[in-house]
Amino acid sequence: MSVDATVAPEGAGNGGASPGGVDIGAILVAIVAMLALVFGVVALFMARDDGDGTATVSGSAVTEVELTEFAFSPDPIAVPQGGIVSVANGGSQVHNFAIEQQPEVRTADLQTGDQQNLDVSALAEGTYTVICTIAGHREAGMETTINVGATSIAAEAGHDPAMMTAEEAEELDRLMTETMLAFPAETEGVGNQMLEPVIEEDGTKRFELTASIVPWEVEPGKIVDAWAYNGMVPGPWIKVDVGDNVKVHIQNDLPMGTDIHWHGIRTPNEMDGVAPLTQDLIRSGEDFMYEFTAEREAVGMYHAHHHGQMQVPNGLFAVFQIGDVPLPAGQTISGITVPEDIEIAQEIPMVLNDAGAIGLSLNGKGFPATAPIVANEGDWLLVHYFNEGLQSHPMHQHQFPQLIVAKDGIPLDQPYYADTINIAPGERYSVLINTDDAGTWVWHCHILTHVEREDGMFGMVTAIVVQ
After folding, report:
1. pTM, whole model, 2 decimals?
2. 92 with 69: CB under 8 angstroms?
3. Which of 124, 236, 282, 444 is the most exposed place for a label (fewest CB within 10 A)?
């Protein structure tokens, strides 16, 4: 594109000259050139590649960090003192970036594709912990360190497994072995204890629950403030028969209101437990009586619905079962015949969680405090998985294939075997396991960051010990 800068004769119209003979086209050319020069200098000043993995914004070094499921990249992070972190969400879920020791230094909750510059210039030289504060994400692996005043090359070289010293590798080996040999570790408190009812004159089964905050030892030495039913996580296991009239009396000793939703259980609408739609909120210090008839077999759960994102991950979840799951006795499935006279040696509820104060856990405990299942060779076990967490968990059983006989308490017309079962939030799977081989066999979530970290094994791991 070109602009004709020739001065037009006076009165020759408005083809570029003003009535006073000033050439407007020439002025525009000069302005454009000047702006280009100014913006070029500004751009050069605001964004400069310094050749070391950082850029410069307004004189401050910028370190780029990407958030994904469930990690920070790079890991660890290093920024020069006085720098800026450019945080981008490259994942499929909402994430954020927060300095644990300086809670005010954090981004907003970033949607997929969002980016935010975070000024970390106020941080003194040193190492800080970086986390994603979205419930469950830290426990899933979104935790790293940020070295303020270090170079990214030095920090990354120290973290790269291929560049570990022999001493560093030996220490990692020691930590993993030490944590594995600590299993099973003793801790205070046991969840999933069967709750016995009070039998009223008309045969109604009445159960008493109290919701309160209690100290709960998730793993050795890790004691958290758990939101619990009757002081345990998971809460008491309630099991009734088909046709029973049921009452559940709940006393709320929490600091806020609550309710109970009967997940997977048929109830009258006014007993569904969704305040304020089906009932009034049970405020702190108040109580409420739920009443319904156990109409049909069910493998369900009961948990808070009011502020469930807070109350459930912190411990307000438990098992509610009606009757027994029908078993495929006498059927041959994938070449394996289930005995016609099958006897269940143990019925085992396994409640999965990954968030809140409880974190990555099986039945309210993290490895090495998870309870082993001790069985005899040849036993048949009936296991019910319940996912009360915020993520899916592929549960893998070493050695023994799992025969899936019911999904969400509904018997399958065609049961099938699997060694890994992906259990989404809210789902329940009922499986048969035949312990036909002696030994200690590991049982764990197969998202590896849910079971292992640099200081050893933790979280969603247990074992079947076959005698």
Report:
1. 0.74
2. yes
3. 124
